[in-house]
Amino acid sequence: MLDRTTTPIRTRSDKPWLRTARWVGSFIGFPLGGLAASVIVGPVNSGLTAIAGGLLTGAVLGAAQAVGLGLSGTAALRWIAATSVGLGTGLGIGATAVGFATSVQDLLVQGAISGLLVGIAQAVLLRKSLGSLALSWPPAVAAFWALGWFMTTSIGVQVDQQWTVFGAAGAITVTVLTAILPTIIARKALSAHATPASARSAS
After folding, report:
1. Is 203 among the domain residues?
2. What are the pLDDT digits (tens) for 44-77?
3. What is the count of structural domains for the chain?
4. Is the pLDDT of residue 8 over 50?
5. Residues 62, 79: contact at Cβ < 8 Å?
6. CA nearest 159: which of 34, 69, 26, 20?
7. Partner of 113 at 20 to 30 A CA spacing, among 74, 86, 99, 201?
8. Residues 95 and 52 sit within 8 Å (Cβ to Cβ)
9. How far is 169 from 39, CA to CA, in rounded Å?
10. Pick from 65, 64, 62, 154: which is nearest to 108 by CA?
11. DSSP for the chain?
12. Once rounded to an integer, what is the mean pLDDT over residues 7-29?
């Protein structure tokens, strides 16, 4: 039986298209989180602002994704905390590693490191419902976040303002590429519930 306090999605019988649509809508967490960090913390131009901005952006993004995954209560708070700590740590390391520069190459590295740490933090929660498949989440998020920065720079966004995260173009790209997540979690949850029943009927 699944522990619903640690399973990062409700095991309700939503239609696949509804789960996907809800997750895609969570893309708004990227630009909103970046804007909040820009206003409250300022540009990412030091280790302190990178960590603080990453924590704030991660909290906003985590909240949006929690809604996208259909989370509530403790499960939602854990997802928000994991995303916040992951991005705060990842952006602190990533931005410092590239000297807070904003060239395409630098942002690709920064994005990959930020995404990797976010993915690792979230994978700790996902392991309960995805098992070994959760190990693929960190490298996938790392690659997608690097792509997110590439998309943002390619349309001419003023990245020299040292944002904590990529803009809407990158956000939509990353969110669509990861939209399979809620469906996989739901299927794994249904399978886990069905297995004991199958075993009982077989005996």
Report:
1. no
2. 999 999 999 999 999 999 999 999 999 999 999 9
3. 1
4. no
5. yes
6. 34
7. 74
8. no
9. 20
10. 154
11. ---TTTSSS------HHHHHHHHHGGGGHHHHHHHHHHHHT--S-SHHHHHHHHHHHHHHHHHHHHHHHT--HHHHHHHHHHHHHHHHHHHHHHHHHTTT--SHHHHHHHHHHHHHHHHHHHHHHHHHHHGGGGGGHHHHHHHHHHHHHHHHHHTT--GGG--SS--HHHHHHHHHHTTTHHHHHHHHHHHHHHHHHHHHHH-
12. 75
Question: Residue range 148-155: average pLDDT?
Answer: 93
Q: How far apart are CA 114 and CA 135, in angstroms?
A: 17
Looking at residue 7, its pLDDT comes to 47
Tell me the Ramachandran region of residue 172: left when phi exceeds 0, alpha when psi lies from -120 to 50, beta otherwise: alpha
- The length of the chain in residues reads 203
* Boundaries of domain holding 181: 17-188
Which residue type does 125 have?
L
Answer whether residue 9 is part of any domain.
Answer: no
**CA 133 to CA 156: how far, in whole Å?**
36
d(CA 196, CA 202): 10
Q: Does the residue 10 lie in any domain?
A: no
pLDDT (0 to 100) of residue 191: 65
Question: Quick check: 190 and 11 in contact, CB under 8 A?
Answer: yes
Q: Which amino acid is at 179?
A: A
